[in-house]
């Protein structure tokens, strides 16, 4: 009798890789020191647990290879440093995550890269912004806070026809319900800190390259910049990724229930959730997003989403918005998402627009829906909303 599952006989039957704490790799002979490659020579290049986590991201995104970084923001850094050099012009969606905006418009500018913001809803008209020295377009869809869905196929087609690289921050979808590389995007970026980890206890980033040539450029940039991640952290994220799909299912279901409930409330001027017909880009979401198994939705089914959405409140004072948020007790007040715990933040302080001054009719609040019972979340919102009343 034999059990021929792929894991049987590997690592003594252990389903998970060992966590090795290794910097130095001792060699038996001096001749070997310069012969071996990568992880065989020095711990910075990673161990079995890093290799397995990289493989998990490569499979999730359907790419050629993945490199890990110590945070999501450093994954953005790595992708940009891989694709851009001094003298280049990079187009950046105006809906980008705030810290990524600072990287692109401040630090990269010091290195001679000129960033220009574009309207996230620009679509094929991105072509009108290309210059002779445009080498990359940075996308993030849905956008941070305001959740615009970008016309990825149109933007990628325009970029490819000019030999311009495309970089995509895919954190919102967890890599499950949207697959940028399948649309021809060159580099998918993840804040693995969020859904892949799921535990609100570890920072990690990943960049997945579409082709072997890009993977080689990505590997060289990783090596030269010196990004290394702890084996314990890599282990935690790999552990999280085993349950990514079931968690996304739960986040999505609860978020839709809450979004539907909030949309009916008199305190709410507008719901911003791409899975609802009221979202201006709902048709793009229906066209391009996938189900919660990462496949095309079955006939009559709609795509999956995640746990993150926003609402615009009816105009009210800052004090009342704070009173509402401070009255929440199941929702925590804090940045980030993708963990087990629900979070809420007021967004107005970090809304920065250059290309598209977004006229919001009231205060913007973002919710990250966790894994608590949805009834408890609704009850929490209901009692807290009373603090918005005049
Ligand atoms: C959180 C986040 C990041 C940065 O991830 P960190 O791990 O916090 O550095 C990047 N992009 C998006 C869209 C994010 O939400």
Assembly status: single chain
Spatial order of the strands forming the largest sheet: 1-7-6-5-4-2-3
The total beta strand count reads 12
Straight-line distance between termini: 74 Å
Based on CA atoms alone, the radius of gyration comes out at 22 Å
State the secondary-structure class.
alpha/beta
Beta-strand residue fraction: 15-25%
Q: Percent helix among the residues?
A: 25-40%
The general outline is: globular
Q: How many separate helices?
A: 10
Structural features, described:
With 390 residues, this protein is of the alpha/beta class. Helices cover 32% and strands 15% of the residues. The protein is built from 10 helices and 12 strands. The chain has helices at 48-61, 72-83, 98-110, 152-161, 212-225, 231-241, 244-263, 282-288, 318-327, 374-385; strands at residues 65-69, 89-93, 114-118, 134-140, 165-169, 187-191, 205-209, 268-272, 308-313, 332-333, 343-346, 364-368. Strands 1-7-6-5-4-2-3 form a 7-stranded mixed beta sheet, sandwiched between helices. α1 runs parallel beside α6 (231-241) and α9 (318-327) packs antiparallel against α10. The protein is globular and about 80 Å long. It starts with 47 loop residues before the first helix and ends in a 5-residue tail after the last helix. Pyridoxal-5'-phosphate is lined by residues 71-73, 76, 97, 100, 140, 144, 169, 171, 191, 193-194, 203, 205, 336.
